[in-house]
Design a protein that fits this description.
Elements lengths: L1 E2 L3 H5 L1 H12 L6 E5 L4 H6 L6 E6 L4 E6 L2 E6 L4 H9 L5 E4 L20 H7 L7 H15 L4 E5 L6 H16 L3 H10 E2 L3 E4 L7 H11 L7 E3 L4 E5 L15 E3 L3 H24 L5 H5 L2 H15 L11 H12 L8 H5 L2 H18 L5 H16 L15 H8 L8 H7 L4 H4 L2 H17 L1 H9 L1
Helix pairs in contact: 4-6, 6-7, 7-8, 10-12, 10-13, 10-15, 10-16, 12-13, 12-21, 15-16, 16-20, 16-21, 17-18, 20-21
């Protein structure tokens, strides 16, 4: 079962499931996929019996395949009762999730469930649940009542120690809101929450993409997805229930995901955000076009090799220098059309694991996080100033935007930096460290004075 049947799932976990079934000759698996926000994907897949096209694009060609592993699609908001029954079904032994960071409703400072969130509290009070944790716990309660056996709940979202965070959110929901220690105890004994690291660039599918795929297929595929050739999945080997043989499809099952997770979040995801924020301010539309600007890609390389690398634990099988080269080469793939605005979205939820943790580690070592703070300043200008270097409007989807702008009280100059950071939930330890705020304020002013590309160049020099 999968919660969050967006493009990434269809280009990643669903493909691993199909490849694992084929490689291990275990054809009895299938995916019951659940939408999170509405019926659009269900309505796209239903007329196609769950089948869809994956177009794998690199700089030279496109490869197509039809993926058949999704056997059922449910709309979470309107078919919630059926979703809860599926979680309780003894035939279901794994629930995977790709619901985005904000769907977990975690406090950005403590990384705990926001138990004061109105939707979380309403779910706990007994309404038909709408939040991810609310639905999951309601389904686990039914599973316990049905004596349906152990289950693995596998978060595949870009969060540090995503399995631990989800396990803790579920426990907080049970003990602090439901006051149900017995349910919490059963979950602790019967449900595992393996951490994972997932990686594949999957841009949003456009009408032009669907038209091109339709021309090739000779029919219209409303659920088609686009992806790059590269794909990676590292999974903590913590299962008490049956699972597909994902390793037969190339996934890595390891005792500790953290080294791989930190490498990806602090290198790939951080550089992705940096290029999105710098590119957006410079009026650049795609990540590939941002990588084509020498000063911007030089900033990304410095971030990865000078600031991030010293903070990383060894990850078996990964040479970090080669990893950085591969990341930047992947970003340069023009066939993906990955937009800077898409990558820049939800920055307040992403900057913690991608940038702030690196900054804190660098400062603790006495190092100067010039590029990481450059990225924070660029993000702030996205949210607070909302203008490119050429004064064109810059629209950013960020859950903290309203609070940050309210805290700035209409100011867009450097005096807005500290209140906006505080409103975004940046921890006091960083806010009170002039090595952090001083750099952020400096770059914030330099963007206005010199422009984005020149400021990036100066940061690298």
């Amino acid at each position: 079962m999968h919660l969050g049947v967006g493009g990434f799932h269809r280009a990643h976990q669903a493909v691993y499931a199909e490849d694992a079934m084929t490689a291990a000759d275990q054809t009895g698996w299938g995916i019951s996929a659940v939408t999170q926000r509405g019926p659009r994907v269900r309505d796209q897949l239903h007329p196609q019996d769950g089948l869809y096209t994956l177009a794998v694009r690199d700089t030279e060609d496109v490869r197509y395949r039809v993926v058949p592993s999704v056997r059922e699609v449910l709309d979470g908001p309107s078919e919630t009762d059926t979703v809860l029954d599926r979680i309780a079904d003894p035939a279901v032994s794994v629930v995977t999730l790709t619901v985005t960071e904000k769907a977990y409703r975690l406090d950005p400072a403590t990384h705990r469930l926001r138990t004061d969130d109105p939707d979380v509290r309403a779910d706990a009070a007994g309404r038909t649940p709408v939040t991810v944790v609310g639905r999951l716990v309601a389904g686990l309660r039914r599973r316990r009542q049905a004596d349906a056996g152990p289950l693995a709940v596998v978060s595949c979202d870009n969060l540090n120690e995503n399995g631990m965070l989800l396990r803790r959110a579920v426990a907080d929901y049970c003990t602090l809101l439901l006051r149900d220690d017995e349910l919490a105890g059963w979950i602790g004994e019967s449900v595992t929450f393996p951490s994972t690291m997932v990686d594949r660039i999957v841009p949003a599918t456009t009408d032009a993409d669907r038209a091109a795929i339709g021309s090739m297929l000779g029919l219209r595929d409303e659920a088609a997805v686009i992806a790059e050739p590269f794909s990676q999945w590292v999974i903590e080997d913590d299962f008490r229930s049956p699972r597909p043989a994902w390793e037969a499809a190339g996934a890595m099952l390891v005792p500790d995901v953290r080294p791989y997770e930190l490498t990806k979040l602090r290198t790939l995801n951080a550089c992705h955000s940096l290029l999105a924020y710098l590119g957006g301010l410079a009026g650049i539309g795609t990540i590939a076009d941002a990588v084509a600007v020498q000063d911007l890609v030089a900033a990304a390389r410095r971030l990865a090799e000078v600031e991030v690398r010293p903070t990383l634990p060894p990850a078996k099988g990964i040479d970090h220098h080669d990893y950085v080269d591969t990341v930047l080469r992947r970003f340069a793939n023009p066939a993906l059309g990955h937009t800077t605005s898409q990558v820049a979205a939800d920055g307040a939820l992403k900057i913690g694991p991608r940038l702030l943790d690196t900054i804190a580690d660098a400062l603790s070592r006495g190092n100067e996080p010039r590029i990481a703070t450059l990225a924070i300043a660029a993000w702030l200008r996205h949210v607070v100033v909302r203008r490119t270097d050429d004064n064109a409007p810059l629209n950013v989807d960020d859950p903290a935007a309203a609070a940050m702008r309210a805290a700035a009280q209409g100011r867009t100059d450097v005096t807005a930096v500290r209140p906006a950071l505080r409103a975004a939930g940046i921890c006091d330890d960083l806010l009170e460290d002039r090595r952090f705020t001083g750099l952020v304020e400096y770059w914030y002013v330099e963007f206005d004075r010199a422009g984005t590309v020149a400021t990036a160049r100066a940061a690298v020099e």
